[in-house]
Amino acid sequence: MLLEQLVEALQDDVVSVLSEGAAAEPRIAGVELLDSHEVVRATASGHLLLGVGVDVADADALDSALRTAADTCCALAVKCEVPVREDLLARIRPSGVPVLAVNPQMPWTRVQRLVTTVMAARAADSEPGGSPTGGDLFSLANAVAGIVGGAVAIMDTQQVIVAYSNLPDQPIDETRRRGILGRRVPEDAIADHLDRKVWTSDTVARHQRPGNLPRLAVVIRAGEDVLGSLWVAFPDDAPVPECGPTLQEAARVAALHMLALRRQVDAEQESRDRALRSLLEGRAGQSGLPDSVCLPGVLVGMTEVTQAAGDEAADAGAAARRRAALLRLVDLAVLDGRSLGYEPAAALLGDRVYVLLPTAGSGPVSTGVLLDHLLDRARHSLHRSFVAVSSPAVGALSPLLRARRDLDAALDHLREHGAGPGAYRTEELRPELVLRRLVGAVRGDAELRTGIGERLRAYDTEHDTEYATTLAAYLRHFGDVVAASGELHIHQNTLRLRLRRAEQLFGVALADPTRRLLLTLELAALTQP
């Protein structure tokens, strides 16, 4: 295929053109790794060479890769940020080699798979009879059902039924009925749907569960990428026909439809994710909310329940492993949201994942159920525990930014108090959030403090006393001497003596409710993180 068509199919966030090369319309016949120059020199011309390990800042390494590509009449892909410096372009252009810039954040393995998939779909589309007919997957399902005499269902890899035939007098059993009503594989049939012989075979597999109609199944692939499967249920009172070639051809045509659908869905998802990130970072500008972000919605913040910071610092790879787990959590959140009828937007900012779940046209389960399901999946799939906090529904930019501030404050509060993994709501934590803001304001503004707290702390430091700690405990227990002395592990009379001395030394007026409130906030500002 034309290099221009490949770049267009992969989109700008994967690759972009650095140099078009000397050929008028460079074409790509395949993809190879540039991990051994000797092996590549034996490769047929016209391939895209993936410059794994080629540092564009290393002139010798880049020149060697360009020579290899030129000798084999191949194009070259290297990782670098765009736009690039003019001196780098001046080094590349004289070689006459078409050169692509790959997003540095994109793994080479994914680039290889994307190129293979796009080219496989292009090849199938150009073969005789290979172009999709019937307009969509539902038309394809009906066409196949009419040919083979069975009831067709097409599923993706997330067990979602994306299309099914609806011809009159089709055979149907309870599994098909529940699957079509719920638009996904029924829970008790998932094990059969995931049968290894279906997904690893290149031929049609026969399958029958007790109490169900006999079925034939074939995997839907594009290159090495598995996209889903096609199943046909046949009447129980007639032999299953020999229709393997027909179903394999149908799977190949279905792959083209599903690739187009995946590209559209992925493009829409990436647009939503980028827009949400921009909004949460305060980069929305004057344009306000982009069309790709669906509001009203519930904003969710998630982070990992971690060990103490010192424990993590002891392991040099801990931060990298945490970020990898958070990136996988983003994928899980999007997949779970989609499979349950939502159109989520997700963004990873720092060590926190934010997910926006639109409330309009929401799925069959509540956001609370979805969160519980997601946290359970993350625990089993990632072997890590996460805490999640959800906001009330927000419908505009300013409430969305306030919701993020609330989520961050709530996550900070839960971490500082050692809360366990699970789902929480900001409404439930509203008193704690208000107190955090009050304490933060007192800590940051000297005009909001009477100064007694600082004098208590200074005196304790100089004389090795514990007046600040004693008063904080007493106020925290609303003047209950028994409870406060129990917390401090001192005698009640000792506590009373300290209170009297504090009143004498610092003018503490514990009988005045206003002064008690102010002192409570000042001591909290001194002691809380």
Protein model, in words:
By secondary structure, this protein is an alpha/beta fold. The protein is 49% helix and 16% strand. It is built from 20 helices and 15 strands. The protein has helices at residues 3-10, 37-41, 59-71, 86-92, 108-126, 137-148, 174-182, 190-193, 196-200, 244-280, 309-313, 318-339, 367-382, 397-416, 430-444, 452-463, 467-476, 481-488, 492-506, 513-527, and strands spanning 15-19, 30-33, 47-50, 75-79, 99-102, 151-156, 161-164, 205-207, 215-222, 225-233, 297-304, 345-349, 352-358, 386-394, 422-425. It has a five-stranded mixed sheet with strand order 1-5-4-3-2, with helices on both faces. The protein has a five-stranded antiparallel sheet with strand order 7-6-10-9-8, with helices on both faces. Strands 12-13-11-14-15 form a five-stranded mixed sheet, with helices on both faces. α15 crosses α20 (513-527), α16 packs across α20 and α18 crosses α19. The longest helix has 37 residues, at 244-280. The radius of gyration is 31 Å and the shape is flat. The two termini are 60 Å apart. The model is unreliable at 124-135 and 308-313 (pLDDT under 50).
